[in-house]
Design a protein that fits this description.
This protein is 29% helix and 25% strand. A hairpin with a 3-residue loop joins β2 and β3. The protein has a four-stranded mixed sheet. By secondary structure, the chain is an alpha+beta fold.
Length: 73
């Protein structure tokens, strides 16, 4: 329902096995490592959240240059 309310993609993984995890108050790399350990292999690295999902072909991406800078600093 939330995906539709925010005009999300019709085939969004959020409808099956995906979540966006807030990083507020957490070490971003610790959350990323925990997600990997839990078997999530679709990893979207944003400034304020981490997108996680399970997919057949592993993928990691950034949500813009500011996110890339934060994750690689």
């Amino acid at each position: 329902l939330w995906n539709a309310a925010v005009d999300g993609a019709p085939r969004s993984r959020h409808k099956t096995i995906a979540a966006d995890i807030s990083l507020m108050g957490h070490d971003r790399h610790a959350v990323l490592n925990a997600a990997r350990s839990a078997g999530f292999n679709g990893l979207g690295l944003a400034q304020t959240f981490l997108h996680v999902d399970r997919r057949s072909i592993p993928a990691t991406w950034y949500y813009g240059q500011k996110s890339r800078n934060l994750w690689n600093s």
